[in-house]
Structure prediction request, 234 residues.
Amino acid sequence: MAQFIPLTSNDGFVLPAYVAEPEGQPRGAMVVIQEIFGVNSHIRDIAERYARAGYLSVAPAIFERTERGVDLSYTPDDMKKGVALKAALEKNPALVLADIQAAIDYAAEKSGGKVGIVGYCYGGLLAWRAAAELSGLSAAVPYYGGGMTAPDEAARDPKVPVVAHFGERDSHIPVAEVEAFRERHSQDGVKVYLYPADHGFNCDQRGAYAASSAELARERTLAFLANHVAAPAA
Prediction:
């Protein structure tokens, strides 16, 4: 079952979140953080895939404070709009982290288990920040997190294990930055993977989609979650 539910942040702000529930008792929970395109059909599909893997999945609509009901496609015009929405939200980044914390808290209560977080593009950056700043997480999985390899973001120290996925051909995230990020975090539970792919390679609605890289990243992610989030088999 999948539906939108209301979440209440710590300042009383109410935002929608797409919740996909697994059949039977959840193995744990995943908070799914959108790209700059909102909780669109791709992000809803990702939440449903994690639910099919046994995880209660919660995808908060993090643009809600800037504009309600954001659901964009991958056209140039929608990309321009998404960039503007992100810029507006980044003027007060503490608010978006508070909204993500509300999703983590809901996921923990609803599932009764551990909680991981996964994010894509801007959501990857937010998943990285969450790993360092928020409570209640057991693992984090940023996909091609835009900005997370920049020196100020790379300097964060995550509180939970992290697996990060990047594309070698990503013009937005230079490989040299990824390698420096890998070196910076080589001793603190951060695993970095590079794929022969471009930015957005996990999204099957984009021209950059790379099926083999997306599948390998998913396999690695599910194995990682099995170790750090999933409840032991009864």
Notes: The first strand starts at residue 2 and ends at 8.
